[in-house]
Amino acid sequence: MLVGAAFMFDLRLLGYSKSLQVSGLADHLLPWSRRGLLLVIPSGILLFLTNAQALGTDAVFWLKLALILIAALNVLFFHNYTFKKHGASVSGQLPFAARISAVVSIVVWIGVIACGRLLAY
Question: Could you tell me which of 33, 68, 73, 78 has the fewest CB atoms within 10 Å of its CB?
């Protein structure tokens, strides 16, 4: 739910589905992202606790945490600066910073998912 909603919003920022208002899509997708976050945080902590010693020394685990931190900083920057400043007034072309934020989000979340899969092996 977290990544799927983020991907849909990022694709809108990249220019897909231009008939949808960015602010309206944000109002619809952000609650789903928050619910997804409420699910993945406890499950991630529980998964870590089952194998904390091995994960604590695994470079892929630390890369995954770094990517999650980058994703969080990207979200904070986007919502507190780019979207707040330009989001409600955007009728046509989105600011360049919004498109950069969308690309960063997509790349980082793909990396997080890949690291998660690599940790299983």
Answer: 73
